[in-house]
Amino acid sequence: MSDIILQIDGKKVIAKEGMTVLEAAQSADIYIPTLCHHELLEPYGGCRLCTVEVESRGRTKFVVGCLYPVEQDLVVRTRSEMIDRVRRLILEFLLAHAPDSPQLQMLAKEYGAKKDRFEKESSFCVLCGLCVRYCAEVKKKNVIGFVDQGAKREISFIPELAAKECWDCKECFPLCPTSYLQAAYHLTKAIAFPSLATEPKSVKL
Amino acid sequence: MPRINSATELEELRKGLLSKRDPDKSYIAICSGTGCLGLGNDRVITAFEQEIKRLSLETQVDIRVTGCHGFCERGPNVVIYPEEIYYIQVTPEDVPEIVSQTVLGKQVIDRLIYEDPNTGEKSAYQSDIPFYKAQMRQLISNNTKIDSRRINDYMGIGGYSALSKALFEMTPAQVLEEVKKANLRGRGGGGFPAGLKWETTRNAPEKQKYVIVNGHEGEPGATMDRAIFTGNPHSVLEGLIIGAYAIGASQGFIYTRHDSPQLKDNIYRALEQAREYGLLGENILGSGFNFNVEVHFDVGIFVSGESSALMRSIEGRNPEPRPKYIRTSVSGVWDKPSNLNNVETWANVPQIINKGSQWYTSIGTERSKGTKLISLSGNIVNSGVVEVPFGTTLRQIIYDIGGGIPNGKKLKAVHFGGAMGGSIPARLIDTPLDFDALKKVGAPMGAGALMVMDEDNNMVDVTRFFLNFLTNESCGKCVPCREGIRQLLKIMTRMSKGNGRKGDIELLEEISEVMGVASLCSLGKTACDPLKSSLRYFRDEYEAGISDEIAPVNEQELTPERV
Q1: Most CB contacts within 10 A, which of B175, B359, B468, B558?
Q2: Residue B88 — φ and ψ, nearest 5°?
Q3: Given A63, A90, A151, which is nearest B486 (Cβ)?
Q4: Interatomic CA distance for residues A198 and A147, integer angstroms
Q5: Candidate from A86, A90, A153 with C-beta closest to B476
């Protein structure tokens, strides 16, 4: 595979073909914020926090770093007034769901996002899909999935599978940026498999 | 049905069909489009069938259960050929009289013909009715001539002659060149040149390529694809096979609505008939070209009409738009190059091959060629499906064809392009129907749903209606679209109650800007287009929803009495 030379924030970066802009930036210690991204998982492109500006073949456009492939002579800007505006508003949307999430609070500080710009939403899940994708892609169990669509979209454990698979796994818990997942799990457990309430004590959460 | 093995055999079959037909023989074309069926035309059809049987007229009179005629406003519609006498609002009780007086007696029944509500002038013939007179019906005019269930009717009007011409007289490259020269632009919304898209798929390195009909038609107010696909399914199929030949695809997909039983029936029947005649399958018409078609249905969500979501749906997966930065024409269904065009685009192909690109480009404006089907709805006298050449002004469509605004109301705005389109004020209705001109004024044509608003419509409510549609019909995967629409709706709901806060309009603008920049697919990127255009032209209606007494949200929390 041949080397691809691109420019990120004015810095020359050497990348390999097939890498994404995010991977190239990380390899050069250039920070791009992410939320739904995880290196063990397929790029998802859901949160759009890693939106950057690229110049390619004379055209400037906004793309997400986690999916946009590197190309020869690509010029990438990871910060600009518009990019910051995008990230700030996305964070404000998410803070309406999960104002206490440490990860969101940290990013909010960087981008000047206010946690109370929009009124509080009832669900604190931000639908990053880390749990859903981890269970499907890494564990290959598909115990948890998305249900419904649009603004009604939510995550849901499938009780029958959860009763069988989850009690000694729970590897998705630490991935959750808002800890909504644990609440959803405990709700599922309480409703669907209360008999397993006394699960082995040796299992660490 | 015999298999047709060559171009000559196809022409012989056609000649045979026509020789058996007396050109002066009467036939009754009964509209069986969605609108007319909803108005009870199934009972009219049965009444005609019974009456013809009762009088033993089966050999003299032919009944054709046809697709949408277009004049839905005055349905159920019935046309008596060969005179082309046009009856509106027909009931089963009228049927015996129509058969005895008009079909046999050649007399016009005065009370069943169209009367212009403004001038009082009556029109007995289809071509005299103002609604039809001002149109140019290249595609939809065939709907009244054929029974949508009979391939032989389509053969009788020259059906599959374009396919035969393409297969035996042209190379795939020549077919592609002709479509490129015709400058056929995609009718589904984007207006992207179909020929260039075909070429991309054709030139993609993968050997297996696919061609797809997008018959999802989820745009609110749009019914024209259904009118063509249900009424004349073979015209779409013929276009698809020609496209497959040009692109080098051996497999096609039809993606269409799960909720239109008649449409499904007609598609299945058309495919079966085409297979029996050897127009689909191995060695089509003896040419050596192989092509098959599979039918897939949508899953009842608007976003499944988005190209990459549609293709995932065909693969049997969730219809979520694909986040990758690669075109479906290069990597689509199962990562193979997949050329997707909508129903109307495919239906245009046979006439381009038959009559040539020179003829085709003589119709329309400089950069928008041919005719366009438009669904007229809203506050308009004649709602229905119309077909006009590009370049026709919106004024001609609304007043000459549509008959103007009912109840003496004034025209306020014209909305084009459904939930991702835009509204323009009445003063701009001399804008011509043209992909680029309409986009420039802020009412991109989309698939061609034209909604007319009168002076009583509030534009904040109209925009809210579209956003409400999208919040239910998007996938909900990406944050800007899902959360952006959620917040827009909250703001606009309080505005419509007069409880808007200072800064709300600026907030609407900020959200729509971010959604346009950062959303994952074209649904999210253009979801705010109706909002942007109505803020551009009807800002005062948004301002009227803002109350001076309510402070902006961030200052509110500081005042304890409000908590």
Answers
A1: B175
A2: -115, 160
A3: A151
A4: 29
A5: A153
Q: Is residue A90 part of a domain?
A: no
Tell me the shortest Cα–Cα distance from B471 to chain A, in angstroms.
5
CB atoms near residue B437 (< 10 Å)? 18
* Rounded Cα gap, residues B165 and A58, in angstroms: 42
Residues B110, B267 contacting (CB under 8 angstroms): no
**Domains detected in chain B:** 25-134 (3.40.30.10), 152-360 (3.40.50.11540), 371-457 (3.10.20.600), 460-543 (1.20.1440.230)
Q: What 3-state class would DSSP assign to B278?
A: coil
pTM of this structure: 0.92
Residue numbers in B near A33 (CB within 8 A): none
> Could you give the CA distance from residue B141 to residue B143 in angstroms, rounded to a whole number?
5
ipTM over 0.85: yes
Chain centre distance of CA B44: 26
Cβ-defined contact of B323 to A43 (cutoff 8 Å): yes
Q: Alpha helices of B219-299 — where are they, by DSSP H?
A: 224-231, 233-247, 261-276
A18 part of a folded domain: yes
Determine, for residues A89 and B510 on separate chains, whether the beta-carbon distance falls below 8 Å: yes
Q: How confident is the prediction along chain A (205 residues), in pLDDT tens digits per residue? A: 579 999 999 999 999 999 999 999 999 999 999 999 999 999 999 999 999 999 988 899 999 999 999 999 999 999 999 999 999 999 999 999 999 999 999 999 999 999 999 999 988 899 999 999 999 999 999 999 999 999 999 999 998 898 888 888 889 988 999 987 777 777 777 777 766 555 555 444 4
Locus of tokens 């000694």: A168
Residues of chain B with C-beta less than 8 angstroms from the C-beta of A150? 470-476, 482, 485
Task: Output the 3-class SS for B527-550.
Answer: CCHHHHHHHHHCHHHHHCCECCCC
3-state SS of chain B: helix, strand, coil percent to 5? 50, 15, 35
Quote the domain boundaries for residue A43. Answer: 3-79
Q: Which residues of B touch A43 (CB under 8 A)?
A: 323
Interface of A with B in 86-105 (CB under 8 A): 86, 89-90, 93-94, 96
Query: Quick one: three-class SS letters along B169-233?
Result: HCCHHHHHHHHHHHCCECCCCCCCEHHHHHHHHHHCCCCCCEEEEEECCCCCCCCHHHHHHHHCH
Residue of A nearest to B485 (CA): A151
Q: Do B487 and A118 touch (CB under 8 A)?
A: yes
Contact B262, B36 (CB under 8 A): no
Chain B residues whose CB is inside 8 A of the A51 CB are 517-518
